[in-house]
């Protein structure tokens, strides 16, 4: 049986139209990858403009990552962290994360994915309020278009309708508010600052309406990724935080995509003036070589968690793979490479080039509504008409066609589910000529999509 047949017959694909896949099988079978290039079974090379799912930051098949993982596998492939058990690398990684955190943090809790880490965040926030004797303060505010995962709780935090439908989500304590997506949400003539003020005022009204004594936390990506690469106005988070502080609502920064340099600065919180009480990281912490996520907890929260021991005994949350030594080895080596090779500064430099290339290739096109991004994270949003501004009726179909057209050119981008948008998030080691070829491939994809409409 061909490998594609095996896939079609036996592999239950995530985020895939199941009935369509049952007919077509996989469009390609990736068998190897190096740097920014992935290769399929037929031997065809593709430039991966998305670093997998925004995550392979040091590039594919880095020999030093392989060496570090082999060494750790032969030394200590696994031991657990339950019941106070210690292992060496996770302890070292924790110190490193606390030292590099964008705001003062106190402790690190490990998981295996961004989704489970955001579930941990909700449990921490609830535990915190239970210890403080405020059992009614439990609601969590998220934003439409925000992406925070797919587990029973985090799937509801994600502000995409298609991740809720059919799953009875979100859970009842979750609320969604308007995102800072200027293209569609800003009133005509509103400045960036006025737009930020309007969103903050709206948030405050929302919290007051819900009852501040029932609202525990707000979760937000500094720069939204899957929701369309939405960069907030500069004053957005300072104004939002003022509101949250006034009502004793905690702020959780979801740095799963932004963290560890994607924006050309160490963390998204640095980029957008965010001062979170709790932080979620994953993806770029190991460049996805081994699954790992972490929740960083500030001292204010930690002191209350400590009081919880007297009230509830042993902290009843944790995974078999929490603080996995192999994942910690991947993270340590990954962070070594990023630091030694100055990759965050490289992201800032290459990000400028990416932005120039995108503007040159797309700015004048009648179907391009907006080009946006920061560092090596960018997006092009398509519209049916610019004047007057009008989206395509079948949302996402046009970006899907652009994606297909680019794929035919050997460039892998991503048609984002919540917007008619294709995104760019290449490995930090991408070369200038690769960036040029990525942008050119997507531009050809756009020409093909326009052609197909005629
Ligand atoms: N948070 C953000 C910002 C993400 O982009 C993602 C995944 O794309 C997640 C959380 C969920 O992470 P995972 O897919 O590892 O569960």
TrEMBL record:
EC number(s) stated in the UniProt entry for this protein: 2.6.1.113
Signal peptide: none
Lineage: superkingdom: Bacteria
Keyword Thylakoid part of the UniProt annotation: no
GO-annotated molecular function: pyridoxal phosphate binding; transaminase activity
Alphabetically ordered keywords of this record: Aminotransferase, Pyridoxal phosphate, Transferase
Keyword Transferase among record annotations: yes
InterPro entries, alphabetized: Aminotrans_3 (IPR005814), Aminotrans_3_PPA_site (IPR049704)
NCBIfam families: PRK06105.1
Family under the similarity heading: Belongs to the class-III pyridoxal-phosphate-dependent aminotransferase family.
PANTHER family per the UniProt record, alphabetical: AMINOTRANSFERASE, AMINOTRANSFERASE CLASS-III
Protein name: Putrescine--pyruvate aminotransferase
Originating organism: Leucobacter soli
